[in-house]
Amino acid sequence: MTIINHIPALQVLIPFFAALFAAITFHKFASWLIASVAIALNLALGIYAQNTFTDSVFYSFGNWPAPIGIEYRLDALNQPIIIYLNAVLLFFLLFGKQLISQTITKYIDSKKHHMFYSLLLFAHAGYLGVLSSNDLFNIYVFIEISSLATYVLMSKGNNARALIGAFDYLMMGTIGATMILISIGFFFAITGSLNISDIGHVMTNTDGPKTLLVAIVFFLSGVILKMAFFPLHFWMSRAYSSAAPFILTYLAAISSVLGVYMLMRFIYFTIEAELIYLPVSLLLRIIAMITIIICTYLALKAKDIKTIIIYSSVSQIGYIFLLLSMWIAKSLLFQLLILDSINKIGVFTLISHIHNQTNDLGVNSLKQIKNSKWFKILAVCIILFSVGLPITSMFFVKVKLFDLLLEQDLILEFIIVLIGSGTALLYHMKFAKAIFFAKEENSTIEIKTNLLGLGFIVLIQFLTLLYMNEIGEMVGRM
User: Fold this and answer.
1) Which of 178, 303, 430, 457 would you label with 281, given CA atoms 20 to 30 Å apart?
2) 444-445 and 368-369 as β-strands: parallel, antiparallel, unpaired?
3) Using the 8-state DSSP alphabet, how is residue 148 labeled?
């Protein structure tokens, strides 16, 4: 059997075993090197699989066919996302090595630096497992693997409150995972199977018992809480605000993508679409409108640039849920998801460079940034793309969204999205004012960290202008 037949398993096993090897190196550079090589290999393997497989690929472990055995599934929905997650982590490792050393591992015992990279790989293997598995219980197992590693990663940095934020994450994440586990138990009781494809087949041939509604409610609630989607996002603002900004370059960038994937896989593959799609789409639309209104307001009122970006990130979930509630918006949904994720990488990397020089990120108390010409040029580009001003990728996505809402006669949604987009301009102006027009008092700061990562993200943002349609077509053709 050739190696291509084992790609579904290898994409999870490579970072998993790399995590084990990194843990036993007891050396910071060696563990970083192992992580970088493993993720680069995984990225190459993922691109090869994307270009080789023409249809869904099923992989049965131990030659135990589904629904009895555990099965992985690669298709047009999850394989591009796997590639993207690998690319995000590779960026984090290669371009963020200096920021990792100065903002995260600097505050970890020097004898345990290697464990940071090991835990990062364990978390990544868990995320890829969630994307690859076609078995509900296996998905739960990978959720727990990724979560346990992420709790520790969130607690590291120079902020003592990061431990409290990580504890919040632990409590809320455990509750969310428990809800998902209860839902899986109900599905097993109803169908006698844990395989997603098999459950979908059984559901299309049954009338749907009342316990099915309970299973659906538990699963959706668990995912929304676990991924910090509004209105169950309250723990995220505390956890993210105290975590080291650069770790959020990775975690915040992939959380929305992973959460939306889980919802889509559940809605479109686990159960009959007609049974659930209409009520769920209505619920998502209501949540979307409330999210845009409340979170843009909270971002506008925030007095810390990190808090502004956190609430801005949550508000984007509103636009994502709005598109998720419309089947015809599938391609546009993935364009928004990927562009929002890239913008998050940009703004959190930007904040990390500033946070490396000062802990005070208040919009009215930030120290003046001097002698950092290239940093300010890149910051202008990052902020422009984040707010979605004309000639940026997000602007064209918003125009498409406006056009879609008008076509569907969703006037209320159109007005709310228009107000939300206008408010986003205002709080990004606060963000920009703090960086470019801070008053010089007793001291100033100068950005001395390597700007290659920030420059690379700006380059990617400009490239998205050329390849927006390809992004939607590549991921949205399931």
Assistant:
1) 178
2) parallel
3) H
Instruction: Calculate ∠ Cα 59-64-69, nearest 5°.
Output: 80
pTM value is: 0.91
Backbone φ, ψ for residue 44 (5° rounding): -65, -40
CA distance 465 to 201: 40
Contacts of 336 (CB under 8 A, 6+ apart): 316, 319, 320, 323, 394, 397, 401
Nearest CA to 312 out of 426, 437, 152 is that of: 426
For 392, the token pair is: 């940026």
Whole-angstrom distance, CA of residue 380 vs CA of residue 347: 11
The tokens describing 454, both together, are 């920030």
CA angle 228, 435, 94 (to 5 degrees): 60
**CA dihedral over 312, 316, 317, 322, signed as positive or negative:** positive
